[in-house]
């Protein structure tokens, strides 16, 4: 194990932001075990909100979490970005303007996303390729021009792509060259973040074989399963002899 994901899903509680003592302990742990960290930024805020106050809260929230963890050995920051369209499912704010024209709504939200990210990058001073936009339920190609323009990276969540039917070989081959982080987990009957052992919905060996085509030296693969048993089962799966898992 070479990297640990620090999961900061929520920002609204008093203890959501790690204190100085916690950050120091994380730094000591990283040095002791030669670890890096990926930081999952909060997703209870929305940098593409059409409400300027909500958007500014989101920008400042991400800036706060980046600055608090900036001195740790960070491999990347994982960001949930929802552009406005009728397929958004997880964002708490994105569909607040239901009366807007669908295509106009998406175009406007992409502008807001760019402005928000530019402000975050300028304020924090982090390298742009450390900010990794996670694949969610929407067409992954829509944000790709923005990712390329701002020199961002991708957090490729294969489980999400399977769940939302975007995990075609063509999509994966397009996104992998821009990928810095991969979230790997099983999907069983549409439910993601399962162990690799209990996965039923996609061919994991084929995905791993595809990954081997690329120079993935700088890619961190996170087993995003949120459970110790699922983690140990998944590690066991990945460390089986090659003739067993064919990858």
At a glance:
The chain is an alpha/beta fold. The protein has helices at residues 20-33, 52-69, 102-124, 144-149, 158-163, 169-175, 204-211, 228-238, 242-245; strands spanning 3-7, 36-40, 74-79, 131-134, 153-157, 179-184, 186-188, 191-194, 220-223.
Key traits:
seven-stranded parallel sheet, 39% helix, 9 helices, 247 residues, alpha/beta, 9 strands, TIM Barrel, two-stranded antiparallel ribbon, globular
What does this protein look like?
The chain is an alpha/beta fold and 247 residues long. The chain has one domain: Alpha-Beta Barrel (TIM Barrel), CATH 3.20.20. The protein is 39% helix and 17% strand. The chain has 9 helices and 9 strands.
Our Rg estimate from Cα atoms comes to 18 Å
Total count of strands: 9
Helicity, in percent? 25-40%
The number of helical elements comes to 9
Quote the CATH topology. TIM Barrel
Q: Mind sketching the topology for me?
A:
Blueprint: E1 3-7, H1 20-33, E2 36-40, H2 52-69, E3 74-79, H3 102-124, E4 131-134, H4 144-149, E5 153-157, H5 158-163, H6 169-175, E6 179-184, E7 186-188, E8 191-194, H7 204-211, E9 220-223, H8 228-238, H9 242-245
Parallel strand pairs: 1-2, 2-3, 3-4, 4-5, 5-6, 6-9
Antiparallel strand pairs: 7-8
Helix pairs in contact: 2-3
């Amino acid at each position: 194990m070479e990297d640990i994901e620090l999961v900061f899903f929520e920002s609204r509680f008093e203890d959501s932001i790690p204190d100085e003592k916690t950050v120091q302990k994380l730094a000591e742990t990283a040095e002791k075990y030669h670890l890096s960290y990926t930081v999952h930024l909060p997703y209870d805020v929305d940098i593409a909100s059409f409400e300027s106050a909500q958007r500014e809260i989101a920008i400042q929230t991400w800036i706060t979490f980046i600055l608090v963890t900036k001195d740790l050995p960070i491999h990347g920051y994982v960001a949930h970005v929802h552009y406005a369209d009728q397929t958004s499912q997880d964002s708490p704010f994105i569909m607040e303007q239901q009366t807007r024209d669908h295509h106009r709504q998406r175009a406007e939200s992409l502008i807001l996303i760019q402005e928000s990210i530019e402000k975050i990058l300028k304020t924090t001073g982090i390298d742009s390729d450390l900010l990794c936009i996670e694949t969610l339920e929407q067409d992954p190609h829509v944000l790709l021009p923005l990712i390329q323009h701002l020199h961002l990276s991708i957090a490729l969540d294969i489980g999400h792509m399977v769940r939302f039917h975007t995990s075609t070989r063509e999509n994966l081959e397009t996104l992998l060259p821009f990928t810095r982080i991969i979230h790997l987990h099983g999907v069983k009957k549409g439910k993601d973040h399962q162990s690799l052992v209990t996965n039923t919905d996609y061919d994991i060996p084929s995905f791993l074989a595809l990954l081997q085509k690329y120079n993935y030296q700088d890619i961190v693969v996170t087993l995003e399963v949120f459970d110790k048993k699922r983690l140990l089962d998944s590690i066991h799966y990945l460390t089986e002899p090659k003739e067993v898992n064919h990858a």
